[in-house]
């Protein structure tokens, strides 16, 4: 039997009846409060509890101090790890903190205005993939084969100085002809009579610090020559920071080649070369940009690889930046490099790694492949063909036909082909075996009877034999007894 819960006569109630409380209470007495609801109590507890995410002032100062130290370290790394002495020398180069004029220092009155409108980056792009190109190792036999395909007389390379000197000599010839017609004396550009039209004038380039006297283009104000000579001196010491406004406006000038020549690009630091490539790539048209690439950037890259057996990070990023104008890149760097006849496999590997990492318009890649296929063959040509084919672009049939002709033209060549040629042949067979005609397919199969490689040719043959050529009918599926007519 359950417990009786009814009130017993002697038990005491918890409180008086309501009417008794109302009669006994007064206006000043607080009303009796019951139990606070659980949800409201939880809200009050959260409101009164101190915020766990709150950081006091002392800890905030410590965090900010550590963050500032880390940022300073990153800035020092971006500037190339300059020491305090280097920092002082750099600021003196810009005309700041200089205690007095010294030998080699730029006079403060000749420092061009510095552009404060924007902050130049110092090449702080993602460099995780820098220099990750495959090292090409060839044996002595392949090296001898590649040497047989190198031209006996390499093509003569023109520099920016040669181009300007040609213009100066042409101007002198025009002045002489005009003077002869008028019966007067010809006006000759000072210094130009010492050199031939294609001889470098950098050997005796003279200014107040080096003691040279190199010829300058006519028609330029002496103040312009003076300012840009000082800009060139600054760029020969540049490591980081903003560039002079006078240098940034060069791409917009009609005679930008002459102005660029005054700055002596061959003396620029690698940091200045990268910044200049950014400016000229962004502001020059394709035709003008390819001149800058071929006359300035290509020589800097080849000289650095020849000297250090690898490419400097800033020059690598400059090369990568130049590929954003792909048409100018091919005309100004890739084609002159292949046509020079002196391109090394190290140079080809570096340039090929940049091509691999940057997306290129399909039509520009197709035009480059067609040009490489028609070019006089050297070993690096096969490497560039392989790299472009490995991008797996949908190429026009005209390019496919040109590549087939490129491989077939070596059928009767008595020289054995290097392994780079066979590798390019294999990539072509793997990627575009379905785009060749049946006649081309048969011709390529016959080619391997004359030009074969023990490790690569069987794979090429397998790819071609198991492919359906352009225009061929797909093989009919075998009869299956399980198929049912519906």
Q: Which key features would you list for this structure?
A:
single chain, 486 residues, mainly alpha, Serine Threonine Protein Phosphatase 5, Tetratricopeptide repeat, flat, snoRNA binding, Bystin, Essential nuclear protein 1
Please characterize this protein's 3D structure.
The protein is mainly α and 486 residues long. It has a domain of 149 residues: Alpha Horseshoe (Serine Threonine Protein Phosphatase 5, Tetratricopeptide repeat). Helix 16 runs parallel beside helix 18 and helix 17 packs parallel to helix 19. The termini are far apart.
CATH architecture of the domain at 132-154 and 345-470: Alpha Horseshoe
Approximately how much helix is present in the residues? 40-55%
Residue stretches low in confidence (pLDDT < 50, at least 5 long) are 81-129, 187-212
Distance between the termini: 80 Å
CATH class of the domain at 132-154 and 345-470: Mainly Alpha
Tell me, rounded to a whole number, the average pLDDT.
Answer: 74
How many strand units? 0
C-alpha Rg (nearest Å): 38 Å
Taking the sheet with the most strands, its summary is:
none
Shape: flat
CATH topology annotation of the domain at 132-154 and 345-470: Serine Threonine Protein Phosphatase 5, Tetratricopeptide repeat
Structural class: mainly alpha
H/E series, N to C? HHHHHHHHHHHHHHHHHHHH
Work out the strand percent: under 5%
Helix run count: 20
